[in-house]
Design goal:
The structure holds 2 protein chains of 2 kinds. Chain A has no helices and 11 strands. Chain B is 0% helix and 51% strand. In chain B, a hairpin with a 6-residue loop joins strand 4 and strand 5. Chain B starts with a strand and ends with a strand. The model of chain B has no long low-confidence stretch (mean pLDDT 95). The chains are: A mainly beta, B mainly beta.
Chain lengths: 110, 113
């Protein structure tokens, strides 16, 4: 059974479009995260939710809006996609500090 | 804000050689974690160190946490091709949120068979 899953795995889209990425975890963890990994492999935290409440909101353009319908799900909606949004987006979950990452969503904006 | 530096950025070794990556934080960490990301894969948790001066071993991997809790190292003895990947250190700042990990930029290890 997959612990942290993300859909879609790949996303190719045009500039200006709006897209969503979904994440689900079956580990029973209370906290979920979105990370962005750029082409140089730098991993940067974007958002974190604990029991559906936003607890970390880094300096991210407000075109990015996370949503947690319940503690097992965390989605990321991106409006008006730009070329610079091309990256791998990882969802993760944790019980304490240790983070369990999903397989990633490879987003390419053309 | 907190910065976590890792060196080297890249390391290429012959199979059987040893490898070490170093991690240095600008602030004291409450703990240090190490993750491994295989090419095309996702980061996978390896270990967490909490105590000052702590040393832990996992088979050929040895992890150290500095006395000041600001630096750490990962040493691999006799590398194998399965060790290929990017090794990240990460830690939350001491006194800050334990949920907010700052990751180093990683060390990409390649191994020549």
């Amino acid at each position: 059974d997959t612990a942290v899953s993300q859909t879609p795995k790949y996303l190719v889209t045009q500039m200006g479009n709006d897209k969503s990425i979904k994440c689900e975890q079956n580990l029973g963890h209370d906290t979920m995260y979105w990370y962005k990994q750029d082409s140089k492999k730098f991993l940067k935290i974007m958002f974190s939710y604990n029991n559906k409440e936003l607890i970390i909101n880094e300096t991210v353009p407000n075109r990015f809006s996370p949503k947690s319908p319940d503690k097992a799900h965390l989605n990321l909606h991106i409006n008006s996609l730009e070329l610079g949004d091309s990256a791998v987006y990882f969802c993760a979950s944790s019980l304490r500090e240790t983070q369990y990452f999903g397989p990633g969503t490879r987003l390419l904006v053309l | 804000g907190q910065q976590v530096m890792q060196i080297p950025q890249y390391q290429h070794v012959q199979e059987g050689e040893d490898f070490t990556t170093y991690c240095n934080s600008s602030t004291t960490l409450s703990n240090i974690q190490w993750y491994k990301q295989r090419p095309g894969g996702h980061p996978v948790f390896l270990i967490q160190l909490v105590k000052s001066g702590e040393v832990k071993k996992q088979k050929r991997l040895t992890f150290q946490f500095g006395e000041a809790k600001k630096n750490s190292s990962l040493h691999i003895t006799a590398t194998q091709t399965t060790d290929v990947g990017t090794y990240f250190c990460a830690g939350p700042p001491s006194g800050g949120s334990n949920y907010k990990l700052t990751f180093g930029k990683g060390t990409l290890l390649t191994v020549n068979p």
